[in-house]
Predict the 3D structure of the following.
Amino acid sequence: MIDFLQNLQTEEHNFQETFENAHHDEEILTRDIPTSQDICGMEIRLSDVMIIDNKTPKVFPFPGLAKVYFMNLVVSDLSADPVSIDLKGFEKIDDGEKLNVDKSLFYWKETEADKRAPSQIHVFCSIIKSKQSLRDVAEVMGNVKNDESYKQVVDTLAGIVKTATSLTSVSSLIFQVAGIVGNYLGKVDDKPLLTWVQSFTDISGDFDVLGTTDKAAENKFASMKLSITIRDTARQKEADLKSAATLQPNGL
């Protein structure tokens, strides 16, 4: 059984907090977004996943390479599926090596049919060392989705997220989902190299952080980065007008 509480980092990001290191596009005004109703787009992106110490000793003639799984779970009150799961396996990973991971974990853009912005998004990322040959991740996910315990936990999680229940309850269920996935991975270390649980919420309804805010988690074994990008309606209109103008012949 994998103990995801080992080498765990957690944080809650309130959209109304002000981060001094938030980056803003140079051509966009730097005023704050008045309310959450002005949000028109949001993306959470994962990048720079680094294995610092793979916990495999280099003893000649063995090069000390490791096999690892990288598990990502995303839960949102707007997602069609209660839990989005991505599982990848990586062979022959050395100390100081980056995993080939650079992806969007969550994306939302306002449309005429979808104007309600997300109020909470929860991201779970974990790097797990395998003690045997990597399994077919497609087969693993097929087994997970047919698991009755998984179905029950996901149903419960769907109800809790939509009713804005406490983050503690959501996190507990996310750990249960991760545990079920871990049960199908075969022989793995019981302590992940690094697990990160990051929650994004809209407490008070004010979104003060504009542009892109970078966040990072790191311990002596691994590190990774998340970025959240927020756009608001007024700025999007400005950007659309500028884009349309550049497409007009002679700027007309």
